[in-house]
Every structure is written in C-alpha cells, then in structure tokens.
Design goal:
The complex is a heterodimer. Chain A is an alpha+beta fold. In chain A, strands 1, 4, 5, 8, 9, 10, 12 and 13 form an 8-stranded mixed sheet that branches. A 5-stranded mixed sheet of chain A has the order 3-2-11-6-7. The radius of gyration of chain A is 24 Å and the shape is globular. Chain B has one domain. The chains are: A alpha+beta, B mainly alpha. At the A-B interface, α2 of A face α4 of B.
Chain lengths: ~300, ~220
C-alpha cells in the first residue's frame, strides 16, 4: 500500500518557471553588462560586437550624428533630404539575407549575423562627397568587401560586381529612377582595401535612412555609388548599367570618381560644402584618396570615363 | 468685399505686407535657431528661390482673379506683390553670391556663363530689375501707360525663365518644377485665350455701334 507523504514544499512556494527564467536572464544580462563595461574595446548593446579602429580612417572630425542621420539621399524613402529619416517604417531591415551570386564558385546567401561575424568589424572614418557638391566625414562600421568576395571564390571570367538594393513597390517611392537601385564596380575596385560593406554608424547598428542593414561605401567615388540596403551582389562579365547611368547617361558615368576637374554638366565639382561648415572647401582628386586609388586608373582618360 | 474703401484697402495692404515678409522672417529665424536642417545655406537658397517664383505666380494671378471675380481692387495690390518677387529674387541672388560663392567673382562669372540653369536664373533677375525700377506712379506717368504696360509684360518671359531655372537645377525628381510650370502655363494660357476671344470679337465687329432698331412708322422724306 502506497502511503502518499505530503510534499516538503507547498505548491505556492515553488517559483513559477516564467519568473525563474526571467531571473536567470537578468543575471546573465547583468553578467554580460559587467563584462562589457570592463572591456576596453568599443562595444554596444545593439549587437555589433567588438569594433577595431582602422589605420585607413581619416583624422578629420566627424560630421554631427544628427546631420548624418537626417540629411540623406535615399530616393526609395523619398526624394527630399529629410524624407528618409521620416520614412524609416517603409523598410524592415530584419530579417535580411544577402545573396552573393553570379560568376562565383561558391554562391550563397548570408544573414546579417553571419556577415557581422565574417571578419572582425572595423570603424572606418571616411570622407563622403556627394555629387551635389556637399560632403561629410562619417564613422562607418563595417568590413572590406574583399573579405566577402573571398568567401564565394569569384571565377576568372568575373570582371565587374553589381549591387542590387532592396525595392518594394508597395511601400517605396515609385518612378524617379528605374528600380531597383543598381550600382556597380570593377572587380579590382571592389577588392580595394578601402571598399567597405558598412553595417554600422557611430559605433551602432546602421540606421534605416543610411542604408540598413548593409550598404556599400566607396570613399573615393561620389556618394551615389554606395548602394544602400543591398540584397544581392552579383559577379558579372560585362559592365553593369547602373540606375543613374540609365537615368542620365550624359551626367552620370560608371566610374563616378570624385574629380574636381571634371564638372557635372550642370554644376561645378571644383568645390564642396562640408556639412556644418560655413565656407566651401576645394574638392580633392579622388576625394583625397588619390595615393591609394589613382593607380587603379592609370592611363585612363578620366574625362571620358567619368 | 466688392470694392473696399481706401481705409479698408490700407489695412489690407498692411496685412499683406506683413504676410509677404513672413517667409523671410521664418528663414531668418530658422537660421538663428538652427532648424533649417543639416545644410542651412542650401535651405536658404532654396527658400528664397521658391518664394521668388511663388510671388511671380501670385502677381501673375492678380489679373485673372480680377476678371473672374470682378474684384477690381486686387489690382491695387499687384505692385507690392511684384516688388516682393523682386526682393526675394535679389535675396536669392545675394545668397548665391555671398553664402554659396563667397564673392569669388571668377567662379561666379564661370558659373553664370557655363551653367545653363544659372544663366537662365540670372537672366530672369536682370529682366526683373527694370520692372522694379519703374514701379512708381511717377515712372508710369513718365513712360506713359501703354509703354509702361508693354515693358511690364516682361513678367511673362521672366516667369517662364524662372520655371526653366528650377527645372534644370533638380537632379531627378521634377515633380515640384512641374507644378510651377503647370501653374505658369495656366496663368499665361488664360491670357492668350482671352486675347484670342477679344480678337474674334473685334473681327466680328462686336465693337461697332449697332444700327438703331427701326420701329414705328417709317416717314419717307423726299427732296422737293
């Protein structure tokens, strides 16, 4: 005969599992937080992990965060500079996958988490010169595009890289440009150490208006070369026809290297207004990166290949 | 509101004057408080340019408004509106010369000659100057009404040049310049249409005195 002995603990005294797990979570987070605050490396709650400084950064003072995040050209979210920051709800940066395909031996898709962990993230403080005649200094967080290209093993026939931005007809601007936004680089430009895939800004996750969750940054070219919210990177044989080349072939070329001597047909490119400054400054050849990139264009007529 | 008296009109003019100054005041205040965005100089250049074009179109709307509503008194506001168009245009040019180019005359001269949109905008403002200079009653008397009117019809090409200036400067999205162009076309089109109606009326002899209608008994008069 089984005689049931009463429990030593009253059911009311047993901790509810939900509360128990919440306590565990709190302790784990507190531990992480204590650890994180003790670490010397820049880190943040948003999930980018450790960020290393880069010798490729400029020592110029960065433009204010407010300007960088409220003065944007991101036509899919509106054509006024203030529009993108106000229309961030039109683009959901998570979940996200980036396909890397085309003339590669190992085509595959990457999640943002995978991309962030691909190689150590770096902070790259770059000058950014817009084709419209203004400029900023932006502390990007990202990794070299070359590191990603290595993962997919480009074939010998691949000569160019095409970048396809996200486009959703239901929520984004219609007309203006032929969507989706398309940009391109020559393979050697894409592999250049300065060429960056950015996932962050000012040490934090990239805001939607700046091209979340992942965008291209090519500091020696006009800003529009940096495709935002990229969903596909394709290695191709022929020079891609970019969105701006389609829109105005006489005004926007494939290379779009910053060049004070080659004017936009409708305005001069000799000077620029650094956002936050009162007087204009002279625009530098290749946006001041001539030492690193001029050799890419040896023997080319930059007036023809603008 | 068919025809306000002189005191009423003076009050209307005062209110209108303050209203016309409001955009300039808001731009100045925005600059002081740093609420014009990341590129305040661009915002001021755009703002003064927008208002030049708006005042030109408002000025051009006066005559159609008068004809369509019968409010003849609105013509008496036209001079102020036209002068504000010129004032905003001058401010726009000054912003460009000063805040944008910092009086780099070499660069400015090149810009005006080489960039079609600047050439066109500059031409429009140059054309506005004689209109502003001959806006006083004394100038109207000196020129004579007919010649004065002919001169002031220059506002038609000025408005067109203003629209072209805006159209050529935008990078890609032409929505806004298109709106201005459509309004300009409507304001000039209605004038052309009225002119055509007038011409037809004249050709049909609409202005010839009608022969008196013959009624009653005809009395023939013969020379004796």
């Amino acid at each position: 005969m089984l005689i049931r002995r009463p429990d030593d603990i009253l059911p009311s005294e047993i901790t509810d599992p939900a509360v128990y797990h919440a306590r565990r979570r709190f302790m784990a987070q507190a531990g992480t937080l204590a650890l994180a605050s003790a670490l010397p490396i820049t880190s943040n709650a948003a999930g980018l992990g450790p960020i290393a400084a880069s010798p490729l950064s400029t020592s110029e003072p960065p433009t204010s965060r407010r300007a960088v995040t409220t003065y944007n050209n991101f036509y899919e979210l509106g054509t006024d500079k203030a529009d993108p920051a106000e229309n961030t709800f039109r683009l959901k940066p998570a979940p996200w996958t980036l396909r890397v395909e085309g003339l590669v031996n190992k085509p595959r898709s990457f999640s943002i988490d995978e991309l962030i962990k691909l190689v150590p993230l770096e902070e790259r403080i770059y000058r950014m010169r817009c084709v419209e005649g203004w400029s900023m200094v932006i502390p990007w967080v990202g990794f070299p595009l070359a590191a990603l290209l290595k993962q997919v093993d480009p074939q010998g026939s691949a000569k160019y890289v095409e970048f396809v931005s996200h486009y959703d007809k239901a929520t984004m601007t219609r007309g203006v440009l032929d969507w989706p936004y398309l940009e391109g680089l020559r393979l050697d430009e894409a592999r250049h150490p300065l060429t960056l895939l950015a996932v962050g800004l000012f040490g934090e996750v990239l805001p939607v208006q700046n091209g979340a969750p992942i965008r291209l940054v090519v500091p020696w070219k006009y800003g529009f070369k940096g495709g935002k919210s990229i969903v596909a990177i394709r290695l191709v044989e022929k020079q891609p026809l970019t969105a701006w080349m389609k829109a105005g072939p006489s005004e926007y070329g494939f290379y779009a290297n910053v060049n004070p001597e080659v004017d936009h047909p409708r305005w001069s490119q000799a000077t620029e207004r650094r956002i936050g400054e009162f007087t204009k400054r002279k625009t530098l050849m290749f946006n001041g990166y001539a030492d690193q990139v001029a050799s890419l264009y040896g023997g080319m007529d930059l007036r023809r290949f603008f | 509101m068919m025809n306000p008296g002189n005191t009423h009109l003076a009050a209307i003019k005062t209110v209108l004057f303050a209203a016309c100054l409001l955009p300039a005041f808001l731009l100045w205040r925005g600059f002081e408080l740093d609420t014009l965005g990341a590129n305040p100089i661009e915002a001021i250049t755009r703002g003064t340019g927008d208002w030049t074009l708006r005042f030109l179109l408002i000025t051009l709307a006066v005559t159609p408004l008068r004809k369509l509503t019968g409010w003849h008194w609105v013509v008496r506001l036209r001079r102020m509106l036209g002068l504000f168009a010129f004032a905003y245009g001058a401010a726009h040019l000054l912003t460009y010369l000063w805040l944008d180019q910092f009086f780099d005359w070499n660069a400015i001269a090149k810009d005006i000659l080489k960039r079609p949109f600047i050439t066109v905008g500059f031409a429009a403002l140059v054309l506005m100057a004689p209109l502003a200079a001959t806006s006083s009653n004394a100038a109207i008397r000196r020129l004579g009404g007919r010649r004065w009117q002919a001169l002031h019809r220059a506002i038609y090409p000025i408005a067109v040049l203003g629209c072209v200036h805006f159209w050529w400067l935008v990078k890609k999205d032409i929505t806004e310049p298109l709106i201005y162009a459509v309004i300009t076309a409507a304001l000039l089109g209605i004038r052309a249409w009225w002119r055509e109606q007038e011409r037809r009326k004249q050709l049909a002899g609409g202005y010839l005195p009608q022969p008196p209608k013959l009624t009653g008994k005809v009395i023939r008069i013969f020379a004796k």
